[in-house]
Amino acid sequence: MPAFIIATTVITDPPRFMEYVKAISGLAERFGGETYVRGPVTEVLEGEVPEGERVIVTRYPDAAAAKAYLYSDEYQAAKLLRKDAGNVVVRMIVVD
């Protein structure tokens, strides 16, 4: 059954965040990931969303593939770049 990683971000330091983006470029695809949505929230219909929030939705063949991506050595190394920026808020969930 397909699984989706849904990530939301508020980027406060774009140049530093781009280091992370470059590091993960093409990585999701190696685990069977296909990005369906990538962009800013354009309209809030209900609830509250932080200003500038962006959403990324990536489909994987199954939850195991999504988790393999998230727990891969390559992703964990890239994640450190994002963490070192210290000013990026990220939430990431798997839905299957």
Automatic annotation (TrEMBL):
Its lineage reads:
Bacteria, Pseudomonadati, Pseudomonadota, Alphaproteobacteria, Caulobacterales
Q: Which residues form the DUF1330 domain?
A: 2-91
Q: Matching InterPro entries, A to Z?
A: Dimeric_a/b-barrel (IPR011008), DUF1330 (IPR010753)
> Which protein are we looking at?
DUF1330 domain-containing protein
Q: Could you tell me the superkingdom of the organism this chain comes from?
A: Bacteria
One Pfam family recorded for the sequence: DUF1330
